[in-house]
Amino acid sequence: MVDSPKRLVSRITRDTLALVLAGGRGSRLRQLTDWRAKPAVPFGGKFRIIDFPLSNCVNSGIRRMGVLTQYKAHSLIKHVQLGWGGNHVARGEFVELLPAQQRMNDQSWYSGTADAVYQNIDILRAHESEYTLILAGDHVYKMDYGPMIAYHVEKGADLTIGCIEVPVDQARAFGVMGIDREGRIESFVEKPDDPPRMPSSPDSSLASMGIYVFRTEFLFEQLILDADDPDSEHDFGKNVIPRLIEEHQVYAYPFREPGLTDQPYWRDVGTIDAYWSANLELIGVQPDLNLYDTDWPIWTYQEQLPPAKFVFDEDGRRGMAIDSMVSGGCIISGAVVRHSLLFSNVMVREQAYVEDAVILPNVQVGEGAEVRRAVIDKGCLIPPGMKIGVDPESDKERFEVSPTGVVLVTPQMLGQKLHMVR
């Protein structure tokens, strides 16, 4: 007998195993994922995207996690080992890496999201969890998974799907659900050309967040059925979920962020434009995503670095950053940085000017260079005097330019070595 909802949530989260699907490339991020998986892409000055679902698990009381990797996973694996391998966990708590390997047959790669879980079914059985929480590893958000799992138990559901309202014109990129008044899902369409509208909000659709709660034994049964189906693509959204809706109790759970917020924060950051804007949103006085929230911290591997430094204070030679976020190890030397986010170990040299830029770690901006409205990938050495984001036609000849004019620059585009990119 439990005494309170909080205790109920605590008990069921302890009986839950979380699986983070982190094997995708994220091709819409273009060259930013040429040498790393999307979940390994840096975000927010010091984090990686995968830190957000993993931190949500820890903060929700879920301390048994598996990370399923596949595409160019070296930097992702290294980050998880450094930042999450120890994790200060007690006995029976872990973050386990589950890379694609030859386990079931001669096929070595995961052929779909459901197949990724199925190929590790023997490992999952050994963990003996009552519930399994399946998460996408490439979204940025804060969420307490405990109430969702409690909702799943209360409804007696076979599957519960985390969902969020999105504008109809954005819903084409997601799985879209139709529900009844009790929250039971009546239809599920993966990336439809004409997304179903919500009856209460005709301009919105109810989109899947890629968050699923299963009773573990039920999940195993469905994975085996799917694996035996020669016509299946072995994907949760395309195959498993549509079949379950017809035959089982499948419910939608509305996304709720910890604390009281009218509009919960959730970002796909799946394009260069979305990635650039989501990073720069963090600079705001009261951003929708509060990285300074001590009640719901985001955990990560943190390199030991000296404080950021701003040097020289002379007219025309003043090191300063205005309306910006600057990470450890950065040196702004007689240069100006405005409304930009600088990751660790960025050097901006004399007379350089940076504005509306997201600059990843270990970048050097040369003397007199100008960088505007850009994403600069890890390890780039911007030559002295180079102008980026000033002449659109010149940028298109050398770099990747997004539909809204954000310029992506990588070491390879600059003819430089790739050893620091990951």
UniProtKB/TrEMBL annotation:
SUPFAM superfamilies: Nucleotide-diphospho-sugar transferases (SSF53448), Trimeric LpxA-like enzymes (SSF51161)
One Pfam family from the record: Hexapep_GlmU
Keyword Transferase tagged: yes
Molecular function via GO: ATP binding; glucose-1-phosphate adenylyltransferase activity
InterPro entries associated with the record: ADP-Glc_PPase, ADP_Glu_pyroP_CS, GlgC_bac, GlmU/GlgC-like_hexapep, NTP_transferase_dom, Nucleotide-diphossugar_trans, Trimer_LpxA-like_sf
GO biological process per UniProt: glycogen biosynthetic process
Domain Nucleotidyl transferase as annotated: residue spans: 18-281
Known EC number: 2.7.7.27
Enzyme class (EC, first level): transferase
ATP-binding is among the record's keywords: yes
Keywords of the record: ATP-binding, Carbohydrate metabolism, Glycogen biosynthesis, Glycogen metabolism, Nucleotide-binding, Nucleotidyltransferase, Transferase
Lineage: superkingdom: Bacteria
Glucose-1-phosphate adenylyltransferase/Bifunctional protein GlmU-like C-terminal hexapeptide domain: residues covered: 306-409
Residues of the site described as Could play a key role in the communication between the regulatory and the substrate sites: Q70, W109
Annotated pathway: Glycan biosynthesis; glycogen biosynthesis
Positions of alpha-D-glucose 1-phosphate binding: Y110, G175, E190, K191, S208
Catalytic activity: alpha-D-glucose 1-phosphate + ATP + H(+) = ADP-alpha-D-glucose + diphosphate
Subunit structure of this chain's protein: Homotetramer.
Family according to the record: Belongs to the bacterial/plant glucose-1-phosphate adenylyltransferase family.
Function: Involved in the biosynthesis of ADP-glucose, a building block required for the elongation reactions to produce glycogen. Catalyzes the reaction between ATP and alpha-D-glucose 1-phosphate (G1P) to produce pyrophosphate and ADP-Glc.
Protein name: Glucose-1-phosphate adenylyltransferase
Gene that encodes the chain: glgC
